[in-house]
């Protein structure tokens, strides 16, 4: 905490693996869409912990559910089941296409389970003739070796070879290229309905419908990775509902626990049957603490009024962001879906998103980058008008300074 001497950014370089490079600011407290650092400086949070804190920081209902569960039961392992896990699974099935749920602790693990299930299902039904996986360029599915190989970003796999074989990548939103890459040897196609890390890029509705049709033609399972866009961020509980295209397997994580690590893989009963007794598992997956929180998150987010509010907040943000595109030579466009918003950097600013992030931080605003060309906003789905307006003012102050070369 802030009164322990010497807990500063400098310690990071002494004791942490250098795979991250956080700024000097160390937040110690959050409430709603505001966060305070060790010095008591206040920030408006347009980052949402990378689309995780969809209900803001320390949501009173979630704090109370977590505290209640903490005094009741923490962990059993999957040797036994527990009430929160069963309640949450029932609610996830009632709310979606799914008939079966598998729990994990992170998005990567949920996708790992999805890919393994697709392979196993194909092995059960087609022997060894159907092993290939098709994924998309600039996709992101996690950091396990299987999921990072499924992601279409060579910068994240370099040096980790040999990678799991039999995974092909094709351009996103290019139905012809996709069709050409497909065959009866494909067991699964994995796609983000809205690419997140790859640049906040929504799939075209015809593209996604076409992918579904071609998967059906070749008997390939369609996996939607909704780890980032799911749980309300698109304005629908899951983005597939807005597209009207139903996957065979869906993964959700990030906002599912609002910051408490939890993930789920959803699927149909006949597909789930391939994850036979002992074929896959997790020590923590479906832990009562995580599931109690996630159940409360789902109860709050799966509400027509809350979901409608996502579109209203998006409009308010866009109305403030669009003039900034015109006024400063930093962005050329605003894109995205619901409250996952990408500010497209002008070519002169490619690779310099981090400068925008740092300038925003200096002005009391937390934002994110995505790839080399996007400044990403993923605020709380219930962020208030005052926080939106004040955040936009701080964003403009930061852009003004950057544009002036200051
Ligand atoms: C963040 C993310 C993941 C990985 O989730 P982790 O919890 O970091 O393992 C996978 N897919 C998508 C689309 C993501 O945004």
Q: Architecture of the largest domain, according to CATH?
A: 3-Layer(aba) Sandwich
- Level-1 CATH class name of the largest domain: Alpha Beta
Strand order of the largest sheet: 4-12-11-10-7-5-6
Largest sheet: 7 strands, mixed
Number of helices: 14
> How many strands appear in the DSSP assignment?
17
What number of domains? 2
Question: Brief overview, please?
Answer:
The chain has 406 residues and is of the alpha/beta class. The protein contains 14 helices and 17 strands.
Task: Describe the structure in your own words.
- With 406 residues, the chain is α/β, with parallel strands linked by helices.
- The chain has 2 domains: 9-59 and 304-404, Aspartate Aminotransferase, domain 1, CATH 3.90.1150; 73-301, 3-Layer(aba) Sandwich (Aspartate Aminotransferase, domain 2), CATH 3.40.640.10.
- Helices cover 39% and strands 18% of the residues.
- The chain has helices at residues 9-15, 48-51, 60-70, 83-95, 107-126, 145-150, 175-181, 205-218, 239-243, 269-272, 288-301, 304-327, 353-362, 385-403; strands spanning 27-31, 34-37, 42-45, 100-104, 132-136, 167-170, 186-191, 194-195, 201-202, 221-225, 249-252, 263-267, 331-337, 340-345, 365-366, 368-370, 374-377.
- The strands form 4 sheets. The chain has a 7-stranded mixed beta sheet, sandwiched between helices.
- The chain is globular and about 60 Å long.
- Bound molecules: pyridoxal-5'-phosphate (PLP).
């Amino acid at each position: 905490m802030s009164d322990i001497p010497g807990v500063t950014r400098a310690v990071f370089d002494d004791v942490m693996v250098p795979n991250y490079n956080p700024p000097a600011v160390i937040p110690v407290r959050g409430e709603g869409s505001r966060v305070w650092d060790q010095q008591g400086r206040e920030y408006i949070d347009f980052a949402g912990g990378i689309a995780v804190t969809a209900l803001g920081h320390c949501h009173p209902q979630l704090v109370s559910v977590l505290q209640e569960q903490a005094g009741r039961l923490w962990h059993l392992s999957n040797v036994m089941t527990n009430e929160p896990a069963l309640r949450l699974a029932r609610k996830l099935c009632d709310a979606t296409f799914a008939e079966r749920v598998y729990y994990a602790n992170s998005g990567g693990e949920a996708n790992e389970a999805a890919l393994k299930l697709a392979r196993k299902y194909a092995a059960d039904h087609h022997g060894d003739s159907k092993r290939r996986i098709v994924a998309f360029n600039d996709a992101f599915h996690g950091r396990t070796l299987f999921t990072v190989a499924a992601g279409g970003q060579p910068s994240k796999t370099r040096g980790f070879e040999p990678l799991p074989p039999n995974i092909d990548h094709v351009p996103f939103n290019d139905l012809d290229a996709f069709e050409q890459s497909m065959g009866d040897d494909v067991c699964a196609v994995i796609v983000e309905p809205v690419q997140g890390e790859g640049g906040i890029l929504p799939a075209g509705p015809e593209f996604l419908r076409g992918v579904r049709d071609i998967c059906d033609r070749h008997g390939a399972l369609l996996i939607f990775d909704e780890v980032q866009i799911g749980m309300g961020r698109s304005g629908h509980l899951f983005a597939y509902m807005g597209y009207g295209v139903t996957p065979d397997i869906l993964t959700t994580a990030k906002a599912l626990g609002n910051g408490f690590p939890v993930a789920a893989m959803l699927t149909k009963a006949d597909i789930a049957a391939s994850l036979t007794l002992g074929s896959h598992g997790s020590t923590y997956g479906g832990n009562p603490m995580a599931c109690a929180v996630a159940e409360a998150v789902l109860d709050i987010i799966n509400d027509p009024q809350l979901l409608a509010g996502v579109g209203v907040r998006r409009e308010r943000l866009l109305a403030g962001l669009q003039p900034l595109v015109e006024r400063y030579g930093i962005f050329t466009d605003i894109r995205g879906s619901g409250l996952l918003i990408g500010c497209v950097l002008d070519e002169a600013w490619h690779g310099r998103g981090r400068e925008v992030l740092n300038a925003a931080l200096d002005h009391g605003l937390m934002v994110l980058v995505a790839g080399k060309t996007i400044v990403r906003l993923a605020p709380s789905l219930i962020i208030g008008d005052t926080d939106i307006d004040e955040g936009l003012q701080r964003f403009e102050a930061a852009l003004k300074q950057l544009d002036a070369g200051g």
